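During data preparation, we tokenized the protein backbone, and the record follows.
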Amino acid sequence: MSTNLTSFIKSIRDIMRNDAGINGDAQRIEQIVWMLFLKVYDAKEEDWEMDDDDYVSIIPEKYRWSNWAHDDKSGNAMTGDELLDFVNNGLFPELKRLEVSKNTPIKQSIVKTTFEDANNYMKDGVLLRQVINVIDSLDFGDYDESHAFGEIYETILKELQSAGSSGEFYTPRAVTDFMAKMINPQIGEKMADFACGTGGFLTSWIKELEPKIKTTEDRDAFDNSIYGIEKKPFPYMLCITNMLLHGIDVPKIEHGNSLLHNVLDYSDDDKFDVILMNPPYGGNEKEDVKNHFPSELASSETADLFMSVIMYRLKKNGRAAVILPDGFLFGTDNAKVAIKKKLLNEFNLHTVIRMPHSVFAPYTSITTNILFFDNTDSTEETWFYRLDMPEGYKNFSKTKPMKLEHFKPAIDWWNNREEINEDGFDKSKKFTKKEIEDNGYNIDLCGYPHEEEEILPPKELIQQYQEKRKSLNDEIDRILEQITDILGIDLEEDK
């Protein structure tokens, strides 16, 4: 890897620290990303122009990166107030108002959607010129350098974890890689992520599928194998750039909210062979969002609603791997039970991997799980496997994140399943659908021994207690209903 790549982030950070307009990590990264997008897009346009003599850029000539950002060292490159004026009063307004219709090719319309919510935070035109020069020194025409930059880009995405709440859209790469590996992508399949964030699952899918390309037909199928939708503008912008960097010239990534569509209106054309997701959780949706779901599935918890979207959009014989918090597993409130009933009756929930705590550190301590299911038949039995903390680790952290090798015990077990009991606790066990039903659809099974429980931050602790109380209340209501039925008592009459 060339030195300008390895020092890339550091040199930009050092320059930006002196600019009064940049306030914190999130703004610094957003600033880097719109410039990176234009630089990467410029390199892509060079390729497209070579392949198509009639290619016309959607970006007006004077605003194409190579025509204003590139410094040919002749002393004519814009800098200072002239550069600031050009960016703030020319480039941004122009790209935000590009004319785009439903017939505009995706690879062109992404310019407008990327810039719709982008901002230039820098206030010093001389420092802005210095940053532009660092970004312009990257050579995306060089395959090795472009590939190496994919790794640098991962570093930028990881930095989002420490950029306050922005971290909620970064799933550790080890987790997305493990899920893509177990799903085993095939050429010709189409995969979706309905809350794709910065594109982690899409990237892992691409990496797992690319070695299987043998022909030009395979390459075409590969290029069209992903679909993502992301609600927030900043991760959307990161995702588009991420896909261009990974060689997907026509990234089918939409800027929108998957929950704003009536699930009963989905047709076969809206369904996918594979769904890989880490739905946002902990959020509560407004009442009007719940109206897009059948009443029994209309939970107020975001992750539950996404689970329904996934079930309605998975093709017959399709496969899915989804990350869900513990609250989904132990929750026995009416909506969660209805969702789990639908999952077990209409889909084959074959595997649940319990993940150790702190996988998503530092931004949440809530323990998560990966559910693997397919749309083949109803569930007969479900395997649960508890993945323990690797030796020598007390917690995962930003400096000691989870790695793919930490999944090795689960990968070894996957193809040679057996029940495992350690110190009186089930580490791996198979449960029949009837056992799960008899347990009130509480699938908090093969969990972690209680002495390992971690003290959660107050907000998450309250959230978890609220979920447990809701489940308990619903459980009590159900039992009371059964008792009154047996005794033939009408409680309404007695009031």
The first strand starts at residue 191 and ends at 193.
